[in-house]
Amino acid sequence: MSTQGSPDVKPDVSRAALGVVRAAVIAAVACGAVLVGGLVLGGSVTEKVIPGLGDAGVLTRWGLPASRAAMDLLSALTVGALIAAAALLPIEAGRPGEGAKEGGRGPGRLSKDAITYLRAASWLAAVWAAAAAATLVFTVADVLGQPVGQVVTGSELSSYVGSLPQGTALMIVVLLAVVVALLARTTTTPAAAFGLLALAGIALLPAPLTGHSASAANHTVATTGVALHVAAVAPWVGGLAVVGVHALLRRDRLPVMADRFSRMALWCYIVVGASGLVNVIARLPDPVELVETDYGRLALGKIALFGALGWFGRWHRNRTLPALEAGRPWSFARLASVEAAVMGAAVGLAVALARTAPPAPAEPESAVKALLGYEMPPQVTPARLATLWQLDLLFVVLVVALGGLYLAAVVRLRRRGDSWPLGRTAAWLIGLATMVAVTQTGVAKYAPILFSVHMAQHMVLNMLTPIFLVLGAPVTLALRALKPARVRGDRGPREWLTAMLHSRYVAVIAHPAVATFIFVVSTFALYFTPLFEAAMRNHLGHMAMSLHFLAAGSLFFWVLLGVDPAPKKLPYPGRLLLLFVTMPFHAFFGIALMNLSQALARGWYASVDPPWGTTILKDQHTGGGIAWGFGEVPTFIVLIVLAFQWYFHDQRQARRMDRKADRAAAPGGRAEDDELAAYNARLAKLAERDKPE
């Protein structure tokens, strides 16, 4: 709320400024102090130098964690500034006639404050890239055991960047951060700001995903846990910093920003807590290790700080948000200074934790467990495929989120008095059940070992699960359940979803030719190139491969079945033609696999070859047979669905034509029809002009 003209404006601004500056200083001091203490406690900076082995030197031992802490803080601040521009600050309504048809209002545009935060994000991303580059140099020096000066002046830096996973990951971070820095200087639209936020979010992941998560007992669980943890921490920390700075710059938008940040922070807190617990369990399977090891004691300290941050969040919702509504912006900055100190300490502790080695396993791991994250399972049988459950955290989170959001939307419609077809809900739940059946059971355990089981998993995720998910009409449900934005011209979830459906990107990717190309060609490009073995050897690549199967299938069947709104809808004869043209390609793919003379990804399958299995090539021939025969199942289901859709479409068209004929036959019917249509069009135009965009 604005308080211009009030006699206490200057004192309030001064108090807010002092609060923000104090928060920044306290946070930096807390981060540095806890980082130093954690490094000493974890022993990463007090290791004894063994004669004859390379030593990177004192500069690297202290410089690497310091640059990593700076990189983490700057990445969070960059994400926070982008979130403020794209989501926390309301989007202003377009001017009348600006980019609109027939004198209507144009699309929403970023406010001056949002543009300011985009420009700040540009500078922050540039410094983030510099910190990542410094971390890269220190990482190479640490791995090689050579002083920084020798690494920089020699040829080791360029040769090891591509061969070290950490080096490659940090180079990706540098490149993405530079792109964000350059584009944020010229971005002026809400969609572009949201795109930059997504790009910065991607840049958060490579560095932490090449750390301890790659060597944890369960690689998939640890990798997903770290990804969720980082994706939730960055907007939480960065958002708090930006809202605190906004208390100094502008106070009229502060209540809106603080309220939106508080709601976002609650979800971030839940995700951080759940993913942090998963990470601790993955690295410390024995609870005794929490108190008996340096890594465990640092983890306990981080848990304590997490609990304190939860208390601060509750205080914000109960005390500072009402104070902001009452016109006291300094109240937020005052509490934020203490909360920033706790967050800074948590970031410093997290960096120290990353530099501390987890306790070694009690028994040496086998080669198979080092690759898979678990020991070789017993001989495959149908019963074991159904009962040997294997937790895949990525798909657990995906199924819980998709199922929970869908059912919550249905409940909202029911409470509002609206109906929602039970068949669509059943189709959605069946789709999620098929996803669980191939990602959490013994199918997931045997899929990395046997190509035949992997192919069954691929077929379900790519050609069966998407059919039921598309029939659930999630986009239509979301458009009906989501409420419009409260602020005129702003974009909430409903407005962002509508804008995405009308975007040029969706118009291109959802074109029937493009969707079919992705659905068909990506399968051949994956399996008959080195991409397949690379994806099988890398846990992140394997997760990306599974998500691609699901996304490509969902895109194709969205175009084919067309329950939800789409940029271009094919007539039913065209859909049948597209189905009969596409499905033979999957049959050709299966035949090609059955006629292989050399095994695919031989290096990987030779490393995990089970002693009870058949030959690698014969198992891949079996996988080809599964691919060839499985195509009949989705084809049959789609034909039945299309037949019913076509029938009901013709029935609706016939009823519409009958009503039109009845109105035309009535005395004065056509004139009344035209008058009613004109009146309805006028009402629709007024409603379109008055509703928020």
Structure, described:
The protein is mainly alpha-helical. It folds into three domains: 173 residues; 146 residues, no CATH class; 236 residues, no CATH class. Helices cover 75% and strands 0% of the residues. The chain has 30 helices and no strands. Helix 2 runs antiparallel to helix 7, helix 2 crosses helix 13 and helix 23 runs antiparallel to helix 25. The longest helix has 34 residues. It is globular.
Number of helical stretches of at least 4 residues: 30
N-to-C CA distance: 22 Å
How many β-strand runs? 0
Main sheet attributes: strand count, strand direction, barrel closure: none
Describe this protein with a few key phrases:
30 helices, disordered N terminus, mainly alpha, 693 residues
Quickly describe the structure.
The chain is an all-alpha fold.
Please write out the topology.
Layout: H1 9-42, H2 58-88, H3 112-144, H4 148-153, H5 156-161, H6 165-183, H7 190-203, H8 206-209, H9 219-249, H10 254-283, H11 289-292, H12 294-325, H13 330-354, H14 367-372, H15 382-387, H16 393-416, H17 422-439, H18 442-446, H19 451-471, H20 474-481, H21 493-501, H22 504-509, H23 512-527, H24 531-537, H25 539-561, H26 572-594, H27 602-607, H28 616-630, H29 632-665, H30 669-690
Helix pairs in contact: 1-9, 1-13, 2-3, 2-7, 2-9, 2-13, 3-6, 6-7, 9-10, 9-13, 10-12, 12-13, 16-17, 16-20, 17-19, 19-25, 19-28, 23-25, 23-26, 24-25, 26-28, 26-29, 29-30
